[in-house]
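FAQ: What does the model actually see?

It sees only this:
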Amino acid sequence: MTGQSRSDRLWQEANALKLLEKQSTIFSCQCHGEPPNEFVLEFHGRGLKLAGDSSATAGQILVEDATMHQVRVEMAYLYPDREPDLKWCTPVFHPNISSDDFVDLKSLGMTWDPKMSMVIICERIWDTIRLAYLDLDKASPSTVKDWFGHQCSETLPLDSRSLRDKIAITQSNIVKYQRKTRDSAANPASTKREVLFIGDDEVSEKDLAAKNNPPGVRDDDRDDEIMFIE
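And it is asked to produce this:
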């Protein structure tokens, strides 16, 4: 590959997967090889599998929850020019995963690109597990397609968590701070407690600034104010 050796790319992918592991209560990864050329991906969350007494051949399909999912990834010799080989190692019931458990990215609605990272693939695998992704038009076999089309009474996705759920828990779009002006020291009661919203809000910071300070009007006190973030 141009500008980067296969070995460097594999180490890069391994490091990114280990970082993802730290950001998630759902995901863990085992790396094998020097450089790592095989990954065992493990996901903990709600998916579906065939029940032990279900007979798909007789048209009687019974499913039950599956909470641990394992996918083995082997990096092809020609990687990244060729996509990784994926094999589902635990029972799964999904309209786009074949009975032989080998998975290509097309069945997951993805087109391989040498720039595609393993983290992106892991996100799609998690969406597949929790049935946030499924394509009934490309479902196989037909019995599985029929079950999802006519018998499924579940609310999808089965698991609402994002793969990086630790970040979602610790991050907040609200920062509380106190705005201290010149007379704050002499009169503590004058200190204003405000809430600053950070994120994709309907009103942008620029819009708020324009509203509070119309063109041609300048708040001379603002230069002397100090914002204390709590």
